[in-house]
């Protein structure tokens, strides 16, 4: 072999190695659907959890208590915004694991923890707001068992995802828009390699409908993760784009994908209750996400 060929081979081997994720173990085996569902039950028991409510304060206390126990440092990002209902106070929660976060680019794992404000129905948001939040608390425990992975991840609980009237430039996505604005203002966009958003992931009849405009590489790797765990049947594409908390991140050129099950008849009705959910669905999404984090997110 010529020197040129040897050099080429060395470059190929080195670049091949550089593209391989570090060995983070098998966190997907640790994710417990029943544990996630128990967290959802606790949140739902607080009642409707709209922004600036006592029940949402209780949710924050519950999230903080659990995450702290698993070695996470929880920071409150407080802000106030004009809404169709006047000025409202919001609080995002941002959690980091361990005393010394890794210097490399970080990955975001997000959920909204508010529930939509309704005057006429008692809206519990078991799936919409509850499922992803309960699962994210369980994921905090799982990642704690894999500190090398946990140190590279920020857990974000967005407030004010829901619109008071309808999604516009100024109504809805309050928490994620503010979070993105802060990143941009502090010139920290380059610190993040990507993100996953969970929203409505607990439906007994689980079909994760990836928005059509999902970053293609991320969608490919989510499908591959689902395939590896024999869960491919539960993942497909939605018929269109979806406006959700991943959108402000994508607008900053931080590639983010929304794992959302938009095929959910009780959506935004009084019927969004815990009996519509299953531990198995939470387990499926939790495990597929953990697989993605370990195998693809840091490649
Ligand atoms: Zn909603």
What is the total domain count? Answer: 1
Total count of helical runs of at least 4 residues: 9
Say what the CATH topology is. Aminopeptidase
For the secondary structure, the number of strands is 8
Largest sheet: 6 strands, mixed
Explain what the structure shows.
The protein has 299 residues and is of the alpha/beta class. Helix content is 38%, strand content 19%. It contains 9 helices and 8 strands. The chain has a 6-stranded mixed beta sheet with strand order 1-2-4-3-5-8, sandwiched between helices. Strands 6-7 form a two-stranded parallel sheet. The two termini are 30 Å apart. 44% of the residues are buried. About 2% of the residues have low confidence. The chain binds zinc ion. Zinc ion (ZN) binds next to loops. The site of zinc ion has 4 residues, from loops.
Topology overview:
Layout (H helix, E strand, L loop, with lengths): L2 H16 L14 H13 L8 H16 L2 E12 L2 E12 L8 E7 L13 H19 L2 H4 L2 E6 L15 H12 L6 E8 L8 E3 L5 H13 L6 E3 L9 H5 L4 E5 L18 H17 L4
Parallel strand pairs: 3-4, 3-5, 5-8, 6-7
Antiparallel strand pairs: 1-2, 2-4
Helix pairs in contact: 2-4, 2-9, 4-9, 7-9
The protein binds zinc ion.
Zinc ion binds next to loops.
Please outline what is shown here.
With 299 residues, the protein is an alpha/beta fold. The chain has helices at residues 3-18, 33-45, 54-69, 126-144, 147-150, 174-185, 216-228, 247-251, 279-295; strands at residues 72-83, 86-97, 106-112, 153-158, 192-199, 208-210, 235-237, 256-260.
């Amino acid at each position: 072999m010529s020197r040129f060929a040897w050099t080429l081979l060395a470059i190929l081997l080195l670049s091949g190695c550089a593209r391989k994720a570090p060995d983070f173990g098998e966190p997907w085996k640790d994710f417990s659907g029943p544990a996630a569902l128990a967290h959802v039950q606790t949140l739902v028991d607080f009642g409707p959890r709209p922004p600036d409510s006592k029940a949402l304060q209780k949710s924050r206390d519950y999230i903080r208590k659990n995450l702290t126990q698993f070695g996470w440092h929880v920071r409150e990002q407080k802000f106030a915004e004009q809404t169709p209902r006047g000025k409202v106070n919001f609080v995002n929660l941002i959690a980091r694991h361990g005393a010394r976060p890794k210097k490399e680019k970080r990955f975001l794992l997000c959920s909204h923890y508010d529930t939509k404000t309704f005057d006429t129905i008692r809206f519990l948001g078991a799936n919409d707001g509850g499922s992803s939040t309960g699962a994210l608390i369980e994921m905090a425990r799982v990642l704690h068992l894999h500190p090398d992975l946990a140190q590279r991840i920020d857990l974000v609980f967005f407030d004010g995802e829901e619109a008071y009237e309808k999604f516009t430039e100024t109504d809805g996505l309050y928490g994620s828009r503010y979070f993105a604005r802060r990143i941009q203002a502090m010139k920290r966009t380059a610190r993040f390699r990507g993100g996953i958003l969970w929203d409505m992931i607990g439906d007994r009849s689980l079909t994760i409908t990836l928005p059509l405009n999902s970053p293609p590489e991320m969608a490919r790797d989510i499908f591959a993760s689902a395939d590896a765990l024999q869960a491919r049947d539960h993942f497909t594409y939605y018929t269109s784009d979806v406006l959700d908390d991943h959108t402000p991140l994508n607008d900053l050129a931080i590639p983010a994908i929304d794992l959302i099950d938009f095929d959910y008849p009780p959506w935004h009705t009084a019927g969004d209750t815990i009996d519509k959910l299953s531990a198995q669905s939470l387990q499926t999404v939790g495990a597929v996400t953990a697989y993605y984090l370990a195998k693809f997110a840091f490649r």
